[in-house]
Records
---
Amino acid sequence: MPSAHLTARASGLVRCPTCALVSGTRDGLLCPRCSSSVQRRKPDSLQRTWALTLSAGILYIPANIYPIMTVIKMGYGEPKTIIAGVMALIEANMWPLALIVFIASVIVPLGKIIILLYLLISVQIGLKTHLKERMILYRLMETFGHWSMVDIFLVTMLATLVKTGSWASIEPGMGVTFFGTVVILTLLAAQAFDPRLVWDSAHGHL
Amino acid sequence: MLSCRRCGAVLLQNRPDSIPRTAALTLGAFILFAVVNGFPLLILKIGGRETSLTLIEGALELGNHGMWEVVIVVLLTSLVFPALHFLVLLYVLLPLTLGRVLPGAIMGFKMADMVAPWGMIGVYLLGVLVAVVKLADLATVVPGVAAYALGGVLVLGTAAGRALNHEMVWNRIGKSVSCHLLT
Ligand SMILES: [Zn+2]
């Protein structure tokens, strides 16, 4: 429900993206307080978000197919994918931890890609409903987005502790690089998206 | 507290003593973070042998497997960005408690905001916890001094983030603005 609030944009004002000063600075000039470039909207937000989101979506496939690590015990290697890592925790009956890791490594990255696609499409077709809900989704994504990095940190720790030559070894796999790239791309995509476009498009001036 | 009427995001919150409190909490977090880097994070015991790893060793190991891009990402998010965040905040806030503004404070404060979302200490700690559980059936793994110190960094760093009043800092370090619409 687009409402009749007076916005900075309508009053010829801009809010500095860095220091939040609301001033009458013209678009593209410098903020009078902190000298950051002041723009009413993030430049090329939609194009950049689309590119980053689609790349993340494509790389999400190899990130889940390739193992993130191989556990070698007595000469026998067992490659583990992201999902297998979660399954192992469930099998070990570590339910609370399994749930947290499931959310961090499966729900968060997949959820982020889906939310980004939904936000992008809803803005492009000028959807006029669920404005506040879409802002909540955007903020959820900003808050929880970086938790997927837990798998990357985990592999680095396990590979260092359990090295070749001892009783067993853990080798990092290709999946780490793909999964890490997906996490970084979704973080960059969330940063590139300008949530004010949700309101702009609902009011018909994208 | 002032929040956006349209979407509910908090725009402005006033807390007294914000600057000295944030400076003290940030200093504590920074000192603890130095401790983190000098002590083992995880200790693995098997038979009579002990293997341990520090934060930096953990990050560098993947370099031996040729995954340097992962090494760089891990080093940046677990070490460089959190340290840089605390350092530039201290550079801005400590002199401010004495009413001084050092050259480059504006750039420093901008940088602190820029690197903040890329520091992932909390996520790293979850990784430490999962590592302990995952290795439990193979060997005895205990968190080292650095793991507890990292927990302290997370608590102090989060408290500093909550205490920080951006508007107040910008008012002190930024160029004076005659027509100030928000406050
Ligand atoms: Zn500004």
---
Amino acid sequence: MSQDVMKHPGLNLGPAHGSDDDAAQGMIFGFWVFLMSDAILFGMVFATYVTSLSTHALAGGPGPHDLYNIKSVFIETLLLLASSFTFGMASLALKYKHGKARLVGWMLVTLVLGLGFLGFELHDIFGMFAKGGVPSRSGFLSAFFDLVPLHGLHVTAGCVWLICLVGQIARYGLDTKTKLGIMRLALFWHFLDIIWIAIFTVVYLGGLA
Amino acid sequence: MSIVADSGGPFLGRLSLHSLPFWDMLQHPTMSNIINGIIATGAASLVVIGALVVIALLTKYKLWRPLWSDWVTSTDHKKIGIMYIVIALVMLTRALIEAVLMRAQQAVGLHGGFLSPDHFAQLFSTHGTIMIFFMAMPFLTGVINYVMPMQIGARDVSFPVLNSISLGLTAAGAALVMVSLVIGKFSTGGWFGYPPYTEATFSPGVGPDYWIWALSLAGLASTLTGINFAVTIYKERAPGMKLMRMPLFTWTALCTAILMIFAMPPLTVATSQLALDRYLGFHYFTNALGGNMMNFANLFWLFGHPEVYILILPAFGVYSEVIATFSGKALFGYRSLVMATMAIAILSFTVWLHHFFTMGQNANINAVFGIASMLIGIPTGVKIYDWMLTMFRGRVRFTTPMVYSIGFILLFVLGGMSGILLANPTIDYQVHNTVFLVAHFHNVAVPGVLFGMLTAYHFWFPKAFGFRLNERWGIISALCWIFGFMGAFFPLYALGIMGLPRRTVAYAQARYVPLEWVAFLGALLLLAALLALLWQLWISIRDRDANRVFVGDPWDGRSLEWSNSAPPPEYNFAVIPSVQGRDAFTMAKENHSAYERPDTYKDIELPKNSAMGLVIAALGFALAFGLVWHIWWLVIAALLAVIASMIVRGFARDTTRLVSAQEVRREHHRWIDAVAAATAVSRANECKTVNVGLAQHQANGVVP
Ligand code: HEM
Ligand SMILES: [Cu+2]
């Protein structure tokens, strides 16, 4: 119905997908707008974190140097970056019709990497708990536990969504709705990657510098 | 018995007999407890009786099935819009009654009065919360929902099921606030719920929790609505509907939608952090262990200031449409109005700090934010002049919407002026936290937002229901609103300068008393205005057959929503209009292409009904209620059910249905036949029964 010739930003399905490509325009544009709103959400939580690095907010409790484990965080970063790459491969498999098997294969690799990320993150968090770094200890720790687990929660939601999409592919094949679902999840996944890079830089590198 | 009274145990969480509004009164029958208990119980009974009456009526007239299939599961933007407005009117009634109670208390508040401080605090907290989140927001969301898709020549919004889910979330939030009247107590922390007062240390009860979860539901709903509206305006416009051809109301809807997208997340963060403090012992805003309440103030007003523009911009859009239509002229300065709207939307993110000039930041920061705040006066002033110049040399008809609009222009200027005063930090220091501020923001909220929404209601009601509202009672009601407003709030400017703090339950200065009484009488006039409004609705429904406007264009409308029948078919347009210029419908009338019979019709695809909105409403309510009362099994069950329902919805296919071309043709021809049979009425007769929805078109100022 729209007369716009402008395509949505990001990887388009392309004319080879016929009406699915048209259906994608409004839906994917809408999802970009949602991500914009989500980015503000993260922005506010970042702001809370940054303003909570003062001695007042630390309240005599443990700080970044006592709690962060850069080795494990670095592994998390690698896992998440790799998962973005594998999701990229899945998107290409979707666009160029490389077949369901390859598409689902890349998606499952992404899932494994995402779960690996979550595993390491949980391990980190319990490590912090063990050292007395619990959220109720100080304003600083409260802010930390708003930001990092919020990202983790998003990744968890992404994983659940991914499993559902694989289920939908199994049930319906690559119909319009699954295609659009995969495209949206792809954006979501890369978005979380970008947020993570900000977290890695601001929270961990900044905190330990 | 005492065990039951004290705690509900694991099954009912914090729920117990203490949660009932008359329990205190029975346990400790002091005079004050009895009066407050009777008022609270009365209010609770009204809620319960109201609900029972609605259930009884639905059953008596066998309306459950239509309610289900035509309304609550509908994904039609028009139905959803109407349901939003119904919520808004119900909540307006409650919040206005609370306002009158507050004014009554203060009128007799010299050394006492009849309300306890706690009860008074609940009243201003619920009044403020409801007026903003459950009156103004649903009202404007409803109006935009109803009007905007038709103005751009679309069949629906981009995401109809999401639209229904947003409605469900809003309804759940409103229901939560209503339930707080019956079970437990609402917050006493005001509409912005500042910690540390609202932290568990100082407010251990359920009040702030009710506030937090009601706002969370409403905030999420508005975020989703904003996305939906913005995408609709960007993606669903009819061919030829370029951005600079959109009606001004659609422009304001776009700016409001963008503000919702950006301004709601800070609210979500503020309320969720407060919840974490209260539920899990975090320290975002506590006094101890490194909390910092200034973060809350910043987050809340980073939402709060844009929020007031979310509220006012659609009202500006409504006035623009109404003034142009009832002056019989194209809107003066369309381009400048668009620019001004955009400018306001952007500036609205740069002024939040004026809500806490007195909280200790340095004077330079205050100066910067003070100047930024004053700057908003410029685009707003531009608009006022544009509206006046639209009327200038127009043929103005004093219909009800026009009476509201003129009342708005006169009064809003005053509210804006007192805003400019307050934007000056040095002056703000003097009147901060007095009722001068209360007078200021009501001076923009009532003539601006509330009148704007009532104007919209009168303007588009005939379109939505197919008959006109009674004009006489409309004018009576409008005048009551206008003069009632003056009576209720002008005295507060003076009282504020005399030093009366806001949120005061009782005072010791006898010199406040006379003006307090004036304000109380003004509030009574406002109550009369509401009653007149409801009476008008009643007699209009009674006389509906004499006032039908099926043809659909009762007052020579200019934009596309007037170019179909009243009420419109569910797909809005039998054929998607092709837009030639600004004021698309006026142009079509001008070159005689309105009311054409196309040669061919096509099947129209529409979304099927969906129970998702209702499911999310029920689960969202259960989740919030469980959280308020610490009923953990309910929280977990509701949360799992929400996730499950979303997954199930993901697996749904076959979500659209077709309206056949024959059916479209039949309906369209029935309407065009009615158009052909109708005689166009002159402007002098547009409020009389001869008006069947066809106004004589008078050319004036078409912009190609
Ligand atoms: C229509 C007639 C109205 C009347 C008579 C009225 C009356 C009042 C009164 C008496 C108060 C308490 C003032 C105090 O603190 O001393 C109040 C507060 C407030 N009102 Fe209204 N009001 C009306 C409409 C509105 C509307 C339309 C809105 C918003 C759209 C609104 C928003 C508020 C807010 C936000 C507060 C502050 C609550 C707080 O202190 O936290 N009111 N109003
Ligand atoms: Cu403000």
